[in-house]
Known about the structure:
Keywords: ATP-binding, Nucleotide-binding. The protein is an all-alpha fold. Helix content is 64%, strand content 0%.
Amino acid sequence: MFKQIDQKKALLDTKRPLSKHTVKSLHEKLLLEWTYNSNAIEGNTLTINEMKVVLEGITVGGKTMREHLEVINHRDAILYVEEIVAKGESVSEWQIKNIQRLILKGIHDRYADVYRDQQVFISGANHIPPDPFRINEQMDNLMEWYEKEAKLLHPIIRGAMLHAIFVGIHPFIDGNGRTARLLLNLELMKEGFPPIVVKVENRLNYYEALDKANTAKEYDDFIRLIAAEVEVSLDLYLHAMN
């Protein structure tokens, strides 16, 4: 499944280090698109151009404070993930809580970096997340899987499964989807892949593949969806090299 992707990744590696101008340009493009799509999937109504000006410090009339904060917070969470990557640190529960805390900063501070104490349901999904009293155990199991079995997997499989299993647990009251997509990209970036953007127009396929992963424990559809986006990002970087 990954032969062509791995070849493109190897080609990109031969072109490193990239020029500072290219890196800055690609970073700004992906940061904006990642922030736009990840928030749009969760219902944020700001357009990509409106998000661009919000990131520049300008308020958009007719939009809620929450929508503005979601943009700024997501940008800050991306920068935090990039710090983790730069330090070469492994994913931990503490980092996961920090990512979610940044996402909810000023929005739902009481729900930030603490696991939920009530039952939740995922709109449109057949999968029902575990009862609150099971969250700690399932998060422990996830981290144990990550530290042992996951290390042997291809980075795309590891990142996709980390995302899917985490969303299935749905440990927080809010911010689970954005946290999961940040964790996915954290895994990819640690291995030298560029971050990917799960596009809002692919939301239906994304949700269906996630639901299949969590109800039937069949991850192939979701892994293929993520792999396709990895190839898109690699193509973007390789095109910038020409």
